Automatic annotation (TrEMBL):
Record-given protein name: PTS sugar transporter subunit IIC
Pfam family, one: EII-Sor
Keyword entries, A-Z: Cell membrane, Membrane, Phosphotransferase system, Sugar transport, Transmembrane, Transmembrane helix, Transport
Membrane topology: Multi-pass membrane protein
Chief location category: membrane
Compartment(s) of residence: Cell membrane
Lineage: superkingdom: Bacteria
Residues spanning the membrane: 43-69, 104-122, 143-167, 187-206, 213-244
Length: 253
């Protein structure tokens, strides 16, 4: 079922993206490491649009290509938060499958680098202003310049474009889906089914390099042959991760 997105919902989805974009201090660790993940912000977008279950399903599908995402040295090669919020909203609005949503979300995530570049470029102006205030000994002004102008600017360049994109973009996506119905849409679905393999492969490579691939193999075998529900396996995995991390920090393994 297609979902009509009203202006208030579009604005709230824009705020979801703003809270997930790298550089917002309001929810600190949750924002930079959890809120930006498409599965999480897809769930929030789903709540806003009245279908949290389908929002989570679509967000989880979009999340797979970004499993190994990392931002290092101020470089953001892609934006999973933008892919998750806009991709989930457009997918719910146009009623497309999770695999097609993944295909749509990848280029959307690449567009997020533009927002990041604009954000970092303009913020250099506030840094120079803070340097001048520091030379004058005005610590209060330094603190204000460190938070207020950058966050106001980031709010504007993140919330407004996303709100417009999800409000006006659903009709365009629906038109495109109708135009591509049949074999073209089947091809997009196939591509969307392949893309998650890229994220899984990158994650496996990272685990193999640090000697943790054996835990992935253990989880795979338990999932395939134990018959236990995924919730129980997730709890077991969390316990094993806690034990391993504790021993690792103490140097006792």
């Amino acid at each position: 079922m297609e979902i009509a997105i009203n202006p208030i919902q579009a604005f709230l989805i824009g705020i979801v993206y703003y809270l997930g974009i790298d550089g917002t201090p309001w929810i600190t660790h949750l924002g930079n490491h959890t809120w930006l993940r498409p599965m999480f912000n897809g769930f929030i977008v789903g709540i806003i649009l009245g279908d949290p279950v389908q929002g989570t399903i679509i967000g989880a599908a979009i999340n797979l290509p970004y499993l190994a995402f990392i931002s290092a040295g101020g470089s953001v090669p892609m934006d999973p938060a933008l892919a998750g919020t806009v991709g989930t909203a457009l997918a719910l609005g146009a009623n497309v499958s999770p695999s097609v949503a993944t295909t749509m979300a990848i280029p959307i995530g690449l567009l997020g680098t533009i927002i990041w570049i604009v954000h970092m470029t303009v913020d250099t102006t506030f840094v120079h202003m803070a340097d001048k205030a520091a030379e004058e000994g005005d610590i209060r002004k330094v603190n204000i310049l460190h938070v207020a102008p950058p966050q106001i600017f980031l709010f504007i360049i993140s919330v407004i474009p996303v709100a417009f994109a999800v409000y006006f973009g659903v009709d365009a996506v629906q038109w495109l889906v109708d135009a591509l119905s049949g074999r073209p849409l089947d091809i997009l679905s196939a591509i969307g089914g392949i893309l998650p393999a890229l994220g899984i492969a990158m994650n496996l490579r990272a685990m193999n390099g640090s000697g943790k691939l054996i835990f992935f193999l253990l989880g795979f075998l338990l999932t395939a042959y134990s018959g236990l529900p995924i919730l129980a396996l997730s709890i077991f995995g969390a316990i094993i991760a806690w034990i391993w991390t504790t021993l690792d920090l103490k140097g006792e393994y």
